[in-house]
Amino acid sequence: MYKLNGSVTDETDFFKGNDVYDLIAAYGSPLYVYNEGIIRKRCRELKGLVSYPDFLVQYSAKANTGLAFLQIVKSEGLHVDAMSPGEIYAELEAGFKPEDIFMITNNVSEDEMRFAIDRNILICVDSTEQLRQYGRLNPGSSVAIRFNGGIGAGHHEKVVTAGKKTKFGVNPEYIPEVKKILSEYGLKLAGIQQHIGSLFMDSEPYINGSQAILDIAKQFDDLGFIDFGGGFGIPYKKLSGQPRLDLRECGKRLDEVFYGFAKDYGKKLTFRIEPGRYISAESSVLLTDVHCTKYNGPHKFAGTDIGFNVLVRPAMYDSHHDIEVYTRENRSAKEEEITIVGNICESGDIIAKDRLLPEIKAGDILGILDAGAYGHSMSSNYNNRLRPAEVLIRENGQVVLTRRRDTLEQLLENYIKLDI
Ligand SMILES: *Cc1c(COP(=O)(O)O)cnc(C)c1O
After folding, report:
1. What CATH number should be reported for the domain whose range is 2-34+282-412?
2. Cβ of 232 below 6 Å from ligand 1
3. 18, 240, 275, 323: most buried, per Cβ within 10 A?
4. Whose alpha carbon is nearest atom 15 of ligand 1?
5. Are the CB atoms for 72 and 39 separated by under 8 Å?
6. Ligand 1 atom closest to 83 (CA)
7. Is pLDDT above 80 for 154?
8. Structural domain spans, the chain
9. CA–CA separation, 193 vs 13, rounded Å?
10. What is the rounded CA–CA span in Å between residue 58 and residue 56?
């Protein structure tokens, strides 16, 4: 195989000597390929983010709920959050203990709450009404509350998750009512949480946003933890030199906040963060066959296997993913403008619009970089297409299948035919 552009997978030795053509031949296209070493590296970076001793990293599993992925995160000693019974189910299967899991709920049913309560998993509620519901189901226990301190931030309106325009969290003006409900049901407030949004590349909004939750924390005198949420960004535009989030600077500033607050609070408490994307995004390259190229007027298109059922981020959030081009022939890497599309019958089915890339031909393979977060976990069977297989490149270079591609039978297994 030859690579016509980009140095990202070379610099990280992503494929560890495995040829992308062999991977596609063995497991089919499209294919999510993961690198174990990168997952571990990102876990360790965040575990070592601060010097403050009572610090917990909870991997936010919705970014990637693969079983093998969760097992690796578990083996690195991280905790996890969960948004649903399904995530709890996968996390327990992956070896997490109930005390490692934090269920952060948003508008859950009584049954869903009970699912976590029955398994001794701490729940974070998102409204005073849900706090009451929790109190009725599990009086005399511990609970956490998500607050909305009024500050939101994110890479797209759809992922800004605090502020008055969003559905999340309890507004601080309800703190007196919160206290009343806590005492009514004999609940202990174990901790409070906020998550202001996703994908910050500069720690400023995160640090500033932390002030809001600290102001709320001051109004409760026996908290065990404060959870600052996730949102740590990764550089999706590496090919154009986008720098990484400066973790050293971020850690230094968080340390100031942690030590400063703990001293004033007068009681030992744990600080938690909840990164999803940072842990998972860069660990996967999504491979796809190029089936054809064509022109519509002046516009050149390359048609691939990656519809938005496989990777929805570009269609849903206008997200950018860098793309590497692999070929069987060592040809010129002369660049041209091209739009990379999938195979779904909708014109919004675009992976990259008017992108400057080396000339692409049918039979080439494309590598969509940074596909490990909100990639497979948001994939679907739309157009009755099969969700792709996932493989993991172990640290010794061995490739293992960690999720089989869907089968045609699975597409129909829950349907019940009419008797006509
Ligand atoms: C999605 C989510 C996260 C993780 O966000 P990232 O941007 O992937 O780090 C953390 N906490 C909550 C409550 C979330 O909903």
Report:
1. 2.40.37.10
2. yes
3. 275
4. 195
5. yes
6. 15
7. no
8. 2-34+282-412, 37-280
9. 37
10. 6
Give yes or no for residue 333 having a pLDDT over 90.
no
Within this chain, domains 2-34+282-412 and 37-280 share the same CATH topology: no
The CATH superfamily of 37-280 is Alanine racemase (3.20.20.10)
The per-residue pLDDT for range 241-296, each reduced to its tens digit, is 999 999 999 999 999 999 999 999 988 899 999 999 999 999 999 999 999 999 99
pLDDT of 293: 98
345 is catalytic: yes
The reported pTM is: 0.96
pLDDT in tens, 340-389: 999 999 999 999 999 999 999 999 999 999 999 999 999 999 999 999 99
| 370 C-beta closer than 6 A to ligand 1 | no
- Phi, then psi, of 225 in degrees rounded to 5: -150, 160
